[in-house]
Every structure is written in C-alpha cells, then in structure tokens.
Design a protein that fits this description.
Blueprint lengths: L2 H15 L4 H13 L1 H6 L2 H4 L2 H5 L4 E10 L5 E12 L5 E7 L5 H17 L6 E6 L8 H15 L8 E4 L6 H15 L19 H18 L9 E4 L4 H12 L3 E6 L3 E4 L6 H13 L5 H6 L4 E4 L10 E3 L9 H9 L4 E3 L8 H9 L3 E3 L1 H4 L2 H15 L5 H25 L6 H19 L4
The structure holds glutamic acid.
Length: 449
C-alpha cells in the first residue's frame, strides 16, 4: 500500500467529516504527517484502522451552564468535556475558561493531551474541557457561582478512576477550589478527582510551577545535545500566565536573561533582564492583583512597554511561546531566526503555525513541540494523583527530582523515536511517533472498544 496516498486519503476524509474543525485538523495533520515510516514498518496499525479509531474521541459531553451575576442577572454559558482516549488510564487534562472555547478548540487540545500524557510515561489517558466563560472582569463570587453550576453537570462524568480535570487558561487554583468544593458536596467523596488543588488540601507542591519549569528543563536538555546550555543566553517568553511566569523563573535560575514577555495589552522589552525583584513584582501583578504589564514598565523605567505588540521581534537566542495556539506565525519565525534564535521550546499547546515550524526546522533551530516540552504540568498532576492515592505529600525537592527525570525521559524518547524512524534530531516527529505508538498498542491490546 502506498503510505502517502493512505494518509492523504485519511486526512481528506477527516476534513470532509468535520469541515469547520480547523484547529483539530491542523493538530491531526501534524501528527499523521510524522507517522508514515511507522505505518510502513508496522502494517498492523493500518489493518487495525488505528488512525480512524484514534481520531474519534471516545465521548464528548456538552451542557448548559446557567449562573447569576452580582446584579442578579442570569447568564448561560456552554460547558464541554472531551473524553478523548482512555487506553492508558483515566481521561486527564485541564479545564479552559475563555471566550474562545469551542468544541473544535477542545477536541484539538484533548487530542494533543492524549499524546502528551502518553509521553510522560505515567498511566494517564487524555481529555480536555471548559467553557466559553471568561473569568476576566468577574468577581470572586461570580466565578464561584459559575464553577458550582459547571460542576452541577460535570460531576456526573468525572471521578478519580474515570476522568481527572485540572486547570488551563483562565482556570487556576481559585477555580479548581470552587469546582472541587462542589464536586465533594455532591458526591460526598473526598478523593483526588481534580489536580492543581492547593497544597494545604490535597495538591502537590510544585504543581503551579511544573509546566514552566518543565519547559526550561526541556530547553536545557535540547541545548545539551549541542554541548551548549542556557547560561548567558538571551530569552523571550510570550504569555505571562502560570506557564509564562514559571518559565521566566526557571530560565533565569538556569542562567538565561529574559528580556521580553507579554500579556493581553502588549509586550515588555526589558534589556536588563528579569531579576529576583522584578519576578516578585510580576508574580504579585499577575497572580494577586491580576493587573496589566503597563505597571511593570511604570515600576521599572528601563523596561519599555509596547502596546498591542508581540514579543517575536525582540532579539533572543531562546524563545518560549507560552500564550495560546497559533500565536507564532511564519513571519515571526523568520524574524526570530534572522535575529539569532537557536532554540524554541513550546510552552503552550501548538503555538507555532505549520509554516513557522518549517522555518525553524529548515534553519536547524532546536524546536520542540508543546506535547513534549510542556508536559511537565500534567506530569506533576500525575504525581499529585499518586500522592493522593498514597495519602502522603512529597517535598518540593522530591517532586522536582521526578519532574527533571520525566522531562529528560520525554526528551530522550523523542530523540530515539525520531532516530529509529530515520528523522534524526526531529523532536516533533519523535514526540508524535513515541506518543502514538504507546496509545495505539494499548488500543490494540484492549480490542475493538
Ligand atoms: N492544562 C495542562 C496541559 O495542557 C495541564 C493538564 C493537567 O494537569 O491535567 O497539559
């Protein structure tokens, strides 16, 4: 069988089936594009129709989320949970609260999550959920009422051995707290059915930091393959949410100088780099006061605030997109390469467009896909589940040692899968192949379900 025709025909059928699901198709195309040598070497995946089976989520739940604002007015949002694949363990993945949330976006994120979770080496299936509700501009009470209403339906479908949600964009410790509280109230069951809980009532130390720290560790591992390190490198990070802030923190701790970052209003160019004092200010600004980066420039006059502008034109050697999907385009990639970027580690899910990835790979930039380099967050979620099962807490040092080991193992399995299938040094192909094989083999073992 001609493999190229087989995959082309497959992608064609996919596009016809759900023509409006553009980001899902983009994510699938990237994975399927890496699989030709695997399908060639192992015809069992074609015989078993694994692509057709893996590309269909096991279940999608869509529900109404009614809630009342502080003035007493009623609002109705739409809630989703995509239970994508449970071949390796209970569905696992975050909850996104943002106005851009649609079934397409969550299907793409759940698909990515399935392969990411497979790469962590932990027993986790893949899922994702959320709502088109935006937490920005809402009071704590409004967020609480919304989260309770969201769980009034979702609690039927989740559970410690079934589906374990966590945070994502717009959903942090506050929202997890409200959702867990309502889940516990309705089920009368204190189990670790969520991760990202606060450490004083069941959360793991280092969970908030884990995704960002993992991105920096992954970049460090990639640079080491060229005998290089983060020491003395200039870096930029795009978003300043949870992932962005802790990526900045760990890059700085490992010797890099972070000179650029951004939020919804614009970007900061701080040629002196972020230090301990600036980082403390940033954390307070973002996590406590939920303010704008304009205040950073007002506080540290050497830093320049650039309204409405992204970070990609700021010269750097290391770049970590940490905001959202498709945030970095072909032209941005060309600018980064022209300015001397040598390593791009994705912190968000699918932030680089296909054209941008081509630019990085053709220029031999060390490029890692999000499903590999941002897997530290869900990996520590897996460790949170382990600690909950054992009813113990590990120290920060213990969790960090696991995290470093897992990031190293993801890095190495990407490289060895890529090399084995004739694409040496291609982290994207390696991540797709290593993630796919584990899920596909488990599906075959478990029969046609
Ligand atoms: N939302 C995060 C991700 O994209 C974390 C998911 C989790 O911890 O379950 O990987």
């Amino acid at each position: 069988m001609d493999i190229q025709n087989y995959t082309a025909d497959f992608l064609d059928r996919l596009a016809k089936r759900d023509p409006a699901q553009k980001v899902f198709q983009q994510a699938v195309k990237e994975v399927v594009g890496s699989l030709a040598p695997v399908l060639k070497q192992y015809p069992k995946y074609i015989k078993e129709k694994i692509l057709d089976r893996i590309l269909e989520p096991e279940r999608i739940i869509i529900f109404r989320v009614p809630w009342r604002d502080d003035k007493g007015e009623i609002h109705v949002n739409r809630g989703f949970r995509v239970q994508y694949n449970s071949a390796l363990g209970p569905y696992k993945g975050g909850i996104r609260f943002h106005e851009t949330v649609t079934q397409d976006a969550l299907k793409f994120l759940a698909f990515e999550q399935t392969f990411k979770n497979s790469l962590t080496t932990l027993p986790l299936g893949g899922g994702k959920g959320g709502s088109d509700f935006d937490t920005r501009g809402k009071s704590d009470n409004e967020v609480m009422r919304f989260c309770h209403s969201f769980i009034n339906e979702l609690y039927h479908h989740i559970g410690y051995h079934t589906d374990v949600p966590a945070g994502d964009l717009g959903c942090g410790a506050r929202e997890i707290g409200y959702m867990f509280g309502q889940y516990k109230k309705l089920t009368n069951d204190f189990t670790g059915a969520f991760t990202g809980k606060k450490p004083n009532w069941g959360g793991s130390l280092l969970r908030p930091e884990a995704t960002g720290y993992g991105v920096a560790y992954f970049a460090q591992n990639m640079l080491a393959t060229r005998g290089d390190s983060l020491e003395g490198k200039t870096a930029i990070v795009s978003g300043t949410g949870n992932v962005g802030i802790y990526t900045i923190e760990k890059l700085t701790a490992l010797g890099a100088k972070v000179v650029g970052f951004m939020d919804y209003d614009g970007s900061i160019y701080d040629k002196d780099g972020v230090d301990e004092e600036k980082l403390a200010f940033l954390k307070d600004l973002v996590f406590v006061r939920r303010g704008s980066l304009k205040e950073y420039a007002a506080k540290f006059p050497a830093a320049q605030f650039r309204p409405g502008q992204k970070t990609w034109d700021i010269p750097c050697q290391i770049a970590c997109p940490t905001a959202c999907e498709n945030e970095l385009h072909t032209a941005d990639a060309k600018t980064l390469v022209a300015n001397g970027c040598l390593c791009l580690a994705e912190g968000s899910n699918m932030p680089c467009t296909p054209g941008a990835i081509d630019v990085f790979q053709n220029a031999h930039v060390l490029y890692s896909p999000g499903k590999a380099s941002n897997a530290g967050g869900v990996a520590v979620s897996g460790l949170e589940m382990t600690q909950n099962s054992m009813r113990i807490y590990w120290t920060r040092e213990e969790v960090d040692a696991y995290l470093q080991r897992i990031m190293r193992s993801i890095h190495d399995s990407c490289l060895s899968a890529a090399e084995h299938f004739g694409m040496k040094g291609d982290y994207m192909a390696g991540a797709n192949i290593a993630g796919f094989i584990k899920v596909a083999d488990a599906m075959i073992d478990q029969g046609l379900v």
